[in-house]
Amino acid sequence: MIRFCLAAMFMILLSWPAAALEGLDAGETARVIEVVDGDTVILDREIAGARQVRMTGIQAPKLPLGRKGFAEWPLAKEAKAELEALCLNKTVQLFYGGSRMDRHGRLLAHLTTTDGLWLQGEMLRRGLARVYTFPDNRERAPEMYAPEREARSAGRGIWGHPFYAVRSPAPSALGRDIGTFQVVEGRVVDAAQVRGTIYLNFGTDWRSDFTVRLAPKTARQFRREGLGPETYGGKWVRVRGWLKSRNGPMIEITHPEAIEVLEK
Question: How confident is the model at residue 4 (pLDDT cuts 50, 70, 90)?
């Protein structure tokens, strides 16, 4: 009976990445010969003219990597070491769901090891990365939010460090984070569309309170997917993106997966 249970648990472990990546295009296999940081690896052979893979959908703590004046993010070395332990000198398979190469000439892919481990999901589960999607690479966001929530609830890795803590929408606090990528959680006080642009306001003073902005092109995309201001008004949401200063702190949202509705 014990042997059966262990076998069943093993099969569940293997089926998790298969289910999470179902529908993506299964790509090539190669061996990881170097880990650059917590979300980037180098392969032993070229694929489409590239050997470096940026693991799409996540953002690990950043290392300077030769950038002058760049301050290393907390836990960056730990994230790199963890990814090395997971995949260095192992064969991985690439899975594609959006753009396959970025402007730096790196492949964009989800990665699994031959023993069935989904590397993005595991780095998120260990609290050494957070979900980071793009308009042209938004596949599997819901599947990635699940292990991120687990790690955050447990305070693992980055979620136990104030540098990465989920921010409140209070403008006095967010003002210190302008120019950085943040996860912000709070209630949408007012949501409206003005001349094609959707604004989600987290306070009553739009001149100084935190705001989420959807440019007209993005707003049209949201509408096509059945998402308008009424979807978010009065709801408790979690948003993520790069903070700007525009009539108070603001995040420009470019695709629906960057907003999680936490309260129906």
Answer: very low
Pick the CATH number of 2-160 from 3.40.50.300, 3.40.50.720, 2.40.50.90, 2.60.40.1930: 2.40.50.90
Q: Among candidates 56, 21, 15, 61, which has minimal Cα distance to 37?
A: 61
pLDDT for the residue 18: 57
CATH architecture of residue range(s) 168-261: Beta Barrel (2.40)
User: What letter represents residue 125's amino acid?
Assistant: R
Q: pLDDT tens, 53-64?
A: 999 999 999 999
DSSP run (H or E) holding 139 = none
Which residues face 244 on adjacent strands?
A: 250
- Dihedral pair phi/psi, residue 109, rounded to 5°: -160, 155
Q: How far is Cα 230 from Cα 96, in angstroms, rounded to an integer?
A: 33
